[in-house]
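Researcher: Next sequence.
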Amino acid sequence: MSDDAAVGTNLAQLVARLEKIEFRTDRDLYNYARILRAIGLELYMRVGMDADMVAAILSQYKGKWYTFGLQSKVRGKLVGAHLRAGAAAAKILGLSGVKMYASFVKHFIKPEIEAEKAARQGKGAKKPGFSIGDKPKGEAGARGEAGEAA
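Model: Next structure:
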């Protein structure tokens, strides 16, 4: 009984940690994705193992009716297949957290990094071509023609 409580407690702790997250920073999204992945993995493993166990137990069932001989194996597999579908859903749940964070990085973090890099590169060097608002250097003509107030 203590083994079951430890697994349940771990899952319950993960869910409690997930519920406490408030989305304020990118680290919150990262932690959310990590915890969601751990929950999905835990549920996938547990429900998948339970599906195999239920199918094995039900396939050995010897009922009172003559139809429960060989058919009990088929019926046990059908019942276990429903749990396997749930395990697959848990796997998708865990992967969706990872995909969410990867998408966040692609659509928000990388453009920010690229914009900062472009801004740093553009600070020291003048861009070639036509620009508006730059004052000409030196005295090109009469006073007032070089962009200075007369």
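Model: The longest helix spans residues 71-124. The CA atoms of residues 55 and 79 lie 7 Å apart.
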